[in-house]
Amino acid sequence: MQAILEMKSIRIIRSEPSWWFATVAILGTMSAGLVHAQSAAGEVSIELSHPADSSNPIVIRFKGNMSQRQVPERIDGSRVDVIAFVSRLVKANKRGNPSAIRDLWRPEDRKELDARFANPVALERNTGFYKNVTHTAIEAEIAYGSTIIIVVRHSTPSTNVVTPYVVKRVEGRLLQTNELQSDPILSPMVSIVGEYLNRAKRR
Predict the structure, then answer these.
(1) Are residues 107 and 148 in the same domain?
(2) pLDDT band at residue 48, thresholds of 50, 70 and 90?
(3) Do 37 and 76 reside in the same domain of the chain?
(4) pLDDT over 90 (residue 128)
(5) Is 36 in a helix, a strand, or coil?
(6) Which end of the chain is more exposed for a tag (fewer CB within 10 A), N or C?
(7) How do residues 53-103 score in pLDDT, each as one tens digit?
(8) Is the dihedral of CA 72, 127, 107, 181 positive or negative?
């Protein structure tokens, strides 16, 4: 059974029992309406059309989730899902506790983190940013190989910052990794998803 919802140039297809396919046309002027499926993790497609000609669009497709989820400050210590991970990450960075921050990274990636935080100014700046965050929301999850790219929006009194956190599941825990730091896919993928989210919020 398949249910299809069309609004302007947006087509959302639901195939029972669990897969969702969302095709969103993003025009240069954003004249099309914007919708994303509030769904369980499935497959998401973002379709980008030329501003003057909607034929031959570029389509980016990934397994993941585009539903926004608020991240609470306090979380059950037994939880090991994405929301719990981001909540712990924000808490550790707000406190400026290098040990707690370090514990959120894979062991093989901690050496680089230690070198960065050996500079007190770097740690102070990092702590200062997170202390200024008033609330955090997960905007998207992108499955890429064995990694998950968590696209997060941090809101401060003066701005919103969309940033990716790349994690892997290690012995049942989600831990940050630098595995994608030189991967050419990460930056453009997050930029496209972030721009879509920013424009959708302005609608």
Answers:
(1) yes
(2) low
(3) no
(4) yes
(5) coil
(6) N
(7) 878 877 777 888 877 888 987 767 667 789 999 999 999 999 998 999 999
(8) positive
Q: CA angle, 86 as apex, 37 and 180 as ends, to 5°? A: 85
Q: DSSP alpha helices (H): ranges in 96-119? A: 98-102, 110-117
Tell whether 196 is covered by a domain: no
Yes or no: say if 57 and 37 are a contact pair by the CB < 8 Å rule.
no
Q: How far apart are the C-alpha atoms of 193 and 42, rounded to whole Å?
A: 16
As given in the structure block, the two tokens for residue 76 are 């059950």
Neighbour count for residue 19 (Cβ, 10 Å): 14
Q: Do 174 and 94 share a structural domain?
A: yes
**189 token code pair:** 């993928």
User: What gap in Å lies between CA 199 and CA 188, rounded to an integer?
Assistant: 16
> pLDDT, tens digit, for every residue of 140-168?
899 999 999 999 999 999 988 888 999 99
Two tokens, residue 198: 């920013």
Q: Is residue 93 helix, strand or coil? A: helix
Burial class (CB in 10 A: 0-12, 13-18, 19+), 196: buried
CA distance 197 to 142: 14
Q: What is the pTM of this model?
A: 0.74
Domains in the chain: how many in total?
Answer: 2
